[in-house]
Amino acid sequence: MAEEAPEDGGTRTLPSLRRLSRALPFGRTHGRLGASSSGRPVVSALCSQESVDPQKTAFLLRKAWTLYSVTPLYRFRRARLRDYARLLSAFIAAERHRGLAVAVGAEMDIAVRLSSLAELRGTDLDQAALLVQLSSRSRASSRSSEDKPVWSGWFCSMFGDDLSENIPEDFTSLPLFLSHGAESYTALVGSWFQKTFDCCFRRLAISPQNLSWMVAMWAGCGLDTAASAVELVFSVPRLAQPLDIFYAIHPEDAKALWDTVQKTPGEITQEEVDVFMDCLYAHFHRHFKIHLSAAKLVKVSTAIASAHCDGIVKILHSQYLPGVLMLLTELAISQIQ
Amino acid sequence: MDATVSEFIRRTVLKIPRDEIKVMLQKWGFLSEAQLQTLNFHQLKDNISQEVVQLCEENSAGIKQAAVLDIIYNHIYQDKRIWSVYQMKKTGEELECFDITDFKKKFKRRIRSALKNVTITFKEYEDNAIWIRVAWGTPYKKPNQYKPSYVVYHSQTPYVFISASVLKSNMPLLCQALIVASNYHDIREMELRSHSLNSLKDIVFKRYSQNFQTYTTKPLQGGNVEPENADIRIVQENRGEKERIYRLNQEAFGSGPQPKLEFAHYRLETMFKSDPKMDVLDKKEPFRCLVKFSSPHLLESLKSLAPAAIEEKSVCCVVIPISGNHRIF
């Protein structure tokens, strides 16, 4: 049974009561239940003290990950990771033989490794993250130490337990998938998972509204080390000559602005995000007489992470990794529902 | 003839489009008309360039002559390079007569005092532009002819246009040599960059028809907003609004073609002011921002923002101080 994700969130199921008490989904606070702007308790989660072991998660940082939402996997067994790796490897070899796959040299094999990352989860109700690594191995040597990594992807659920609460027994919920490496490998791995576990991958686009949330939240996080600027990139596409506008704000000033905007401790509301963005737009308009609100926000970047509307993120700090993943998990879940 | 020189000439000729080769060689003037007649321009470019090299060998071409050919190529195809604008400053008001020989001598001396392995070539053009080509080496290596820097200097102005080589470490030396040779005492980069050298010149020498400050007493007719509709029953919606936008645009941008800018950077260090009702930031220090606009044709793009905005129901009037000071305080 493959769940077809609806195009638009209009027919989303009602949020569970537990979720309502925590917050309405990311950015969708004009709740159909009449509750206005409930906040997200993001601040405490983002600035979590119990950070994940930096050693194990170093590979996640400073890479551009392409995001997908994944519907729950049917009959996925954690104990069978070795088998799956073998099957996936055979699948890839077969596809290459058919000439469908990537131009790795003829003397190279693709070695597949699946592993679990128990630390990458929000609560015990979350599934542990699942990492898939493809490396090229020269046929001349069979020592795995000489493998060269060519692609990696991982499934993750960070505080995504609301979704997993509602799903039947045989399903495993890992709604967020991140890939790094050639698109052709992503397609291969994706199609194997889809065939084997009857799930559905969809690229996760990030709307300008969600990007605004991200930049507001991340701009407000304090960092010990010198932070890089808070950057917003806008595009005005429908002109004869397309125009890109890059608006960077000194991180201390952006944080100072956010600190005065954010009133409710431990929580962030849609209103606060709107005010923050309106302030930035107004400051810009004062100088250039251009309404940035009429342009399309395509990318945001802070010292913590950067995100692009095509669903590409880069996480820069391990301290905030759980918080960022939590946001992305929620986005993925919204897309699935 | 030096092998590096013949290879350099060969590669330079290969870059030239086939129909332009003869004209460019004539401009170069190093090969005689008789020699040029012997060239067959209807063969593969590879072969043409080999023949040219052979003729150059007959004339004992050296690196100096090859460098001049390179300048000629880059002068014609100047839009292939990215140019930045620098402004030089004098302390006093003394008007000195510009002496080209003195300039060249001082420039070469300053550069060679720091770096022996350089090739420096000058060419003057009719519009009073002095083109300078510098190929850079190191204390141990001969100059790299394939990554030169270009400078265009109009001697009656304090502006130089530089297309730097990728070997960026030579910029300070280049700037130093320029101010020493031209008797200025300081040089700073302006926030203007483009592929179109002429557009940069238009902007910096104020040769285009932007007229913020002037008030046109004769109101522009609200014409040319849309092509005339044959059917008079079709009435333009919002025609009044469209005409107003058109007029504002004309006042801001002028009616001529826009200089072709690709990037514009602004550093903002103004105070943050907000609606007092919003009860937000009220710091005493400036709100520091950096804004960059980029587009294949920036000014056309900005010009079309306002008319396009009609559809978006939000009107954008663009006021961009393109020339002059770019630090907004």
Commentary on this structure:
The complex is a heterodimer of chains A (337) and B (329). Chain A has 10 helices and 13 strands. Chain A is α+β, with helices and mostly antiparallel strands. In chain A, strands 1, 3, 4, 5, 7, 8, 9, 10, 11, 12 and 13 form an 11-stranded antiparallel β-sheet that branches. In chain A, strands 2-6 form a two-stranded antiparallel ribbon. In chain A, strand 9 and strand 10 (243-249) form a beta hairpin. In chain A, helix 7 (208-219) crosses helix 9. The radius of gyration of chain A is 21 Å and the shape is globular. Chain B is built from 10 helices and 9 strands. In chain B, strands 1, 2, 3, 4, 5, 6, 7, 8 and 9 form a 9-stranded mixed β-sheet that branches. Classes of the chains: A alpha+beta (337), B alpha+beta (329). The interface between A and B is large, with 34 and 42 residues. Strand 10 (243-249) of chain A pairs antiparallel with strand 8 of chain B, so a sheet runs across the interface.
SSE layout and pairing:
The complex is a heterodimer of chains A (337) and B (329).
Chain A: H1 17-22, H2 42-46, H3 54-57, E1 64-70, E2 73-74, H4 81-97, E3 108-117, E4 129-138, E5 148-156, H5 161-165, E6 171-172, E7 176-181, H6 183-197, E8 201-203, H7 208-219, E9 230-236, E10 243-249, H8 251-261, H9 270-288, E11 296-301, E12 305-308, E13 312-315, H10 321-336
Antiparallel strand pairs in A: 1-7, 1-8, 1-13, 2-6, 3-4, 4-5, 5-7, 9-10, 9-11, 11-12, 12-13
Helix pairs in contact in A: 7-9
Chain B: H1 3-15, H2 21-28, H3 33-37, H4 45-58, H5 63-76, E1 83-89, H6 100-114, E2 118-124, E3 129-136, E4 149-154, E5 159-163, H7 171-182, E6 186-194, H8 197-204, H9 239-253, E7 263-270, E8 287-294, H10 298-312, E9 327-328
Parallel strand pairs in B: 7-9
Antiparallel strand pairs in B: 1-5, 1-6, 2-3, 3-4, 4-5, 6-7, 7-8
Helix pairs in contact in B: 1-4, 1-5, 2-5, 6-7, 9-10
